[in-house]
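dumping this here so i dont lose it
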């Protein structure tokens, strides 16, 4: 079918910016398309047969990956300055089993953001301390008060020191750990504790962090941390034992809590400005939590104006 005036106009805009060569072929498919304000009305599926064939407006990738190439565009942005949106011109459908493990991991950490960081303190059965950050971390429930974090396997398939230490006593560990906050104040020291050290060497000493005694478990807590959850390990779920990057889920029950006096009010509301927590993005990028907005739950949220 003949190309619409709107589609031809979009080509002109992209060509102006050096993004399109000729016949609508994409020169840089990863360019920031959302500034053109294009909204997709529909799509059709294509399967790549030639990696060099990159037809506007989507990017084709090698392998058995389908591109959903959007068509029938409504131009906003530079064509219609009153338009709104960010938009997406195309998307891929991927099969995890056909992707290399590292690509799957990069998608996880790049899409699931920002991630809270558990700064986990453990101690080996013979009394050697360990401290490490984990960004696959979250709370589970308030009844019982439980949380989880996920230490993946080492490159040789063995357990990380944290898992080796905190797994249940029946499995050779101590069955205890402490989760501390990750904040702006000691962000550098927290990141340094990701260093791979020989088993038994102390990340506490490497980072120069001061320890404070816990109350009901043996591992120490970070003295600077505005909160700390002392935990007993309930269960370890192993998704791929002995395999590089295999996932493990450590589920812990909180048995004691430390909170700075000025961090919470009488109703146990935490002051985020005092907490100054940081979160993990993709790669080596972190996020601060200083920019926030309030929004009511349920249908009430729909009464608010769109976020800009």
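and the seq i came up w/
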């Amino acid at each position: 079918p003949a190309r619409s005036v709107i589609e031809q106009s979009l080509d002109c805009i992209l060509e102006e910016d050096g993004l399109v060569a000729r016949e609508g072929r994409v020169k840089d498919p990863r360019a920031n398309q959302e500034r053109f304000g294009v909204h997709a009305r529909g799509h059709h599926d294509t399967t790549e047969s030639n990696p060099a064939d990159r037809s506007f407006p989507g990017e084709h990738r090698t392998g058995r990956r389908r591109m959903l190439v959007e068509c029938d565009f409504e131009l906003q942005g530079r064509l219609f300055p009153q338009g709104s949106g960010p938009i997406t011109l195309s998307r891929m459908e991927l099969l995890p089993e056909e992707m290399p493990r590292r690509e799957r991991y990069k998608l996880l950490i790049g899409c699931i953001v920002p991630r809270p960081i558990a700064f986990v303190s453990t101690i080996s059965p013979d009394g050697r301390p360990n401290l490490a950050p984990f960004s696959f971390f979250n709370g589970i429930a308030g009844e019982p008060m439980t949380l989880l974090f996920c230490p993946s396997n080492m490159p040789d398939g063995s357990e990380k020191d944290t898992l080796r230490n905190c797994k249940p006593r029946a499995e050779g560990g101590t069955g205890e750990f402490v989760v501390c906050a990750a904040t702006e104040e000691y962000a550098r020291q927290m990141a340094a504790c990701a260093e791979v050290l020989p088993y038994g060497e102390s990340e506490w000493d490497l980072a120069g962090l001061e320890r404070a005694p816990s109350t009901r478990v043996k591992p120490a807590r970070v003295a600077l941390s505005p909160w700390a959850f002392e935990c007993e390990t309930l269960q370890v779920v192993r998704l791929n034992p002995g395999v590089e990057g295999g996932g493990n889920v450590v589920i812990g029950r909180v048995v004691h809590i430390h909170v700075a006096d000025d961090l919470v009010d009488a109703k146990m509301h935490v002051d985020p400005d005092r907490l100054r927590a940081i979160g993990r993005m993709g790669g080596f990028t972190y996020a601060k939590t200083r920019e926030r907005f309030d929004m009511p739950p349920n249908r009430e949220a729909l009464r608010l104006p769109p976020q800009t």
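Confidence is low (pLDDT under 50) at residues 12-76.
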